[in-house]
Amino acid sequence: MRKQDKIFEEGNVSGLPFSFNQEVTEVFEDMIDRSVPGYNTTLRIIQQQAKNHCIDGSNVYDLGCSLGASTSSLLNALNGMSKVIAIDNSDSMIKSCIERFSEPIKVGQVNFLQEDISNSEILDASIVVINFVLQFLSIKERVELMKKIYQGLVPGGILILSEKIHFDSKKRTEEISNIHHSFKAANGYSKLEISSKRDSLEGVLVTETESQHLNRAKELGFKDSTKLMSNLNFLTYKFQK
Fold this sequence. Notes:
There is one protein chain. By secondary structure, the protein is an alpha/beta fold. It folds into two domains: 22-36 and 167-201, no CATH class; 39-164 and 205-240, Vaccinia Virus protein VP39 (Rossmann fold, 3-Layer(aba) Sandwich), CATH 3.40.50. The protein has nine helices and seven strands. It has helices at 22-35, 39-53, 69-78, 91-100, 102-106, 139-152, 170-186, 191-201, 210-220; strands at 59-63, 83-88, 110-114, 125-131, 153-164, 224-231, 234-240. The longest helix is centred in the last third of the chain and has 17 residues, at 170-186. The radius of gyration is 18 Å and the shape is globular. The termini are far apart.
């Protein structure tokens, strides 16, 4: 049984910024299910797209894999066709993944690496997944990572990118943000928990607009952009080389 997220039940007592430490790792599945609308749909989309676009023998990457939810979707789709390389810089996340995925690791279907994705090599890839991770990098790091992914994809390869966004209109951003807070409240979070987590993420999770993501992909050379899902201010896109 997964552990319930109660990290901010008494507020952000420490005043520290959000980090993917052991405490977050232990409750991460509950946290993301209750915080990200459409998350499970995103995982199903990743699985479906992987089936459609994987090239036998190519590499498949899950960048910022956390506890391996996207990795699991990829493994279910690929059925041994290609190797999944899952990367995260959190020691506690990678240790948990190594325990959870012992069987596919044993047969060589997946490899977990603890490293900064900004420093990772992307080679001979038909699929790269970045699931709600880019938003934690600086703008410069986002550009460099996307550039590296584009260069590491085989012709026709795809990047599946999921991100939280904000809107050009401040009023629209506030309206959707309020609905999102209602979503979290309906999933059992108190007003104190919602505001405390928001405060801890200030300056750590930095959103962009949809057009900023699309323009970046176009400027880097991606020839095709397809919106696969939109749920409040959470989007999933496919960018094809």
